[in-house]
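User: Could you write out the 3D structure of this protein bound to adenosine-5'-triphosphate? I've included everything you need below.
Assistant: Certainly. Input first, then the structure.
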Amino acid sequence: MRLSAENLSAKRGEDFIFEDISFALNAGEAMILTGRNGSGKSTLLRVLAGLLRPERGRVDFVVAGDHESRPAREASHYLGHRNAMKHELTVAENLVFWKHFLGDFGGGNGASVENAAHAVGLEGITHLPFGYLSAGQQRRFAMAKLLVAYRPVWILDEPTAALDASADRMFAGLVHDHLAAGGIAIAATHQPLGLNAARELKMTGFSGAPGGVWQ
Ligand SMILES: Nc1ncnc2c1ncn2[C@@H]1O[C@H](COP(=O)(O)OP(=O)(O)OP(=O)(O)O)[C@@H](O)[C@H]1O
């Protein structure tokens, strides 16, 4: 399994936010995006997830043993700043929606709603409307979305911002298990996320160097 980006460039409005970013991640590998506010981390993640069209370049995902690449978005979960849950629906209804809407990518199975709730430390309250929950509980259930449908690539934009330390540890454990099972993770984060072996891509923004810088 391999996720690759080749000579990616993206614009917002008239401006290039980054140019000619290339990298490849194999099964079990993670990459952290760093850089100051506005340097283009979210923009790159949205391009990788297929939510924004790059100005140039391409993103590919190849399953081990396959010759043909597929669009990375088909293999990816995207956890953005917003939780993407309906406040009027119960937690279970939201998660069942995502489970069916996303479906499982070939080669894996998503968890049941109750098992996913257990994994984020919130079993027993999935019957409540999403809107009744605290901000931290809502974020934990947004993380559970990553578990109910199997997607080998996790694209994470500040996943643990504003969460408590135990939620940080819980999410680091989820990412660790995902990588240990051969998944790939790319995250913009200021928290460690337990990704000690992760590579780092420093985003320098359109006022700095043209692309990003590998560490
Ligand atoms: N919808 C948009 N239209 C025009 N410009 C945008 C849009 N969204 C973002 N930008 C610009 O693109 C640049 C990169 O923004 P982006 O959100 O990718 O940065 P970031 O590194 O994720 O920032 P932060 O750390 O603050 O989340 C910024 O200069 C921002 O103003």
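The longest helix spans residues 165-180.
User: Perfect, thank you.
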